[in-house]
Amino acid sequence: MAEIRQLIMARTAESAVALKGRRSAFLAGGTEINRLGSTVEASRLIGIGRIDALDGIDKITDEENGIEYVRIGAMSSFQDIIESSIVPSYLKEACLFMGSRTKRNMATIGGNIALRRTDSYLYATLLACNAKLSLMCRDGAIIRRCAKGYLEDHEEYRDMLITEILVPAEATVASKRYSNTAQSHAVLTVSAAEIDGVLRIAVAAKDTFLGLLPEISAEFSGRIPSDEELLQMVASDGKLCFRDDMFGSSRYKRYLLSVTIADLAKKVRGGR
Fold this sequence. Notes:
Layout: E1 6-9, H1 13-19, E2 24-27, E3 44-47, E4 57-62, E5 67-73, H2 78-83, H3 89-95, H4 101-106, H5 109-115, H6 123-128, E6 132-136, E7 142-146, H7 147-152, H8 154-157, E8 161-168, E9 172-178, E10 188-195, E11 198-205, E12 209-212, H9 214-218, H10 227-236, H11 250-268
Parallel strand pairs: 1-3, 2-3
Antiparallel strand pairs: 4-5, 5-8, 6-7, 6-8, 9-10, 10-11, 11-12
Helix pairs in contact: 10-11
């Protein structure tokens, strides 16, 4: 982490984006910037905690496709999401993966997305449910991208500000997290969802991979792969280069991922 030389508290989203540069970072809940070993490299912080427009949780309907979404302001904390009466249970479950209530009161959904950590609490769930992000550009314009697009093309969006997150109000999503303790970050988080009849499997594997597994998901079209087939698919997927470490052997992690995919797929597809 670089030495922080300047802290500026932005009053509006537009002013925050205007201040963003290569050696600066947005300061939301501060759980990452203030931790030992932080990955944030910045000499100037732009505080966005006083921007009211980044708060709030409500429901909206996408008139184009008729889908109802829950709109979550980027500065909503994990605890705000858990306590909301309209946030779907699948996202609350992911927020509860953060075991510390103190951290949940500080950590924000926007900050967790922007960090793109391979041990993210939320990213696998957001990818699986095909969450949408609203981003503010330097000129104040708002563009919308899916979580997958933001993750894969982050360099294009790095100086934009996440203003809100939209998740389907009604979706069948199941997630599983593995960690050494409730307080520690996950070794592996897996989520599955069925969106428009298509299975979506997403993985956050510490120091290994963060993203969707479309090739493995496609194998569930019209059938249920055997445990042996899933294990082989995981082993042959070049993105999943697990290594032996204190959290387990690469062989064990591949096995854990394959059986978890099978279990979650059955849950979201109702045993089909």
